[in-house]
Amino acid sequence: MQTDEVNFVKKAPATMACRLCGQGLGETFRQRILGHIDAAYFRCPDCDLIQTEPPFWLSEAYSTAMSTADAGAIRRNQLTADLTSGVAWVLGLGPKAKCLDDGGGHGVFVRMMRDRGWDFRLCDRYAENIFARGFDGSVDEHFDLVTAFEVFEHFVDVSGEIERIFAPRPEVVLISTQLHRGHQPGWWYYMPESGQHVAFYSEKTMRHIAWQHGYDVAGSRAYTLFIRRGADFAGWRKAAAQWMVRRSRGDRNHGWLKTLLRAGPRFESRIIADSGITPP
């Protein structure tokens, strides 16, 4: 057992309701958050969501919108921009498709995707849009493609936030969050030093979400792809996109994806149009 998971004095109730499916839960383990808070974690026997006790420490955890521990933010945006470009192209979603990045932070990913020609918008209630100003959107609108990278693990109201994303019935939802494989003592993705990760999903959890909202689901440990049942995609396109996501990793892109992107179409960048400057 890890040092930070010994049983400290318990301050949380021993039971609570799952924040995704409502099932009653008993405490699974405890660990120290932000170096001084002894927090209880619960694992749902029905949907398999691991979640912290109600996180009363978030004002401290979010004293900055981006955790100082997140040194890979720019690299992650590069990787997700490549994967999203490949998935969108394979599904036949081009420059006319309406796309939204939910929880997109300061807008780096949205700017990258607009530079590649896709009509992406940004939605984030907690961070300032710096790099994609003027291109804000809302999950209340219908979009063809919604992305949410490193977002789901921050959800406190898990059921409500997921309903917010799926209620407008987007055709495709592509997310990244590391999936657990049961209670893993000392798992790095708990990120107790930041205090911002409060919900942890497994393949079973993702199947539960897909079933609940009427989507087909496929994924790897790092990425999950939801495609609306009945969406107008050719069978081969859907199968190809699912294969891509199943084979994808969170720390690097495979050579086949780079080859696909080199062979795929080149859309006109939106940089000039977005700048508002008329070229000579």
TL;DR?
By secondary structure, the chain is an alpha/beta fold.
Task: Please give a structural write-up.
The protein is of the alpha/beta class. The protein folds into two domains: about 5-60, no CATH class; about 75-275, Rossmann fold. Helices cover about 30% and strands about 20% of the residues. The chain is built from eight helices and eleven strands. The strands form two sheets. A six-stranded mixed beta sheet has the order 6-5-7-8-11-10, with helices on both faces. A hairpin with a 3-residue loop joins β2 and β3. The relative contact order is 0.16.
Described by the principal axes of the CA atoms, the overall outline is globular
Q: How many distinct beta strands? A: 11
Order of SSEs, N→C? Answer: EEEEHHEHEEHEEHEEHHH
End-to-end span in angstroms? 66 Å
Structural Rg: 19 Å
The major β-sheet equals: 6 strands, mixed
Named at the architecture level, the CATH assignment of the largest domain is 3-Layer(aba) Sandwich
Please indicate the count of domains: 2
* Estimated structural class: alpha/beta
Helix content: 25-40%
Strands ordered across the widest β-sheet:
6-5-7-8-11-10
Question: How do the helices and strands line up, and which of them pair or pack?
Answer:
Layout: E1 15-17, E2 24-33, E3 37-43, E4 50-52, H1 58-61, H2 73-91, E5 98-102, H3 108-115, E6 119-123, E7 145-149, H4 158-166, E8 172-176, E9 199-200, H5 203-213, E10 215-219, E11 223-228, H6 235-246, H7 255-263, H8 271-275
Parallel strand pairs: 5-6, 5-7, 7-8
Antiparallel strand pairs: 1-2, 2-3, 3-4, 4-9, 8-11, 10-11
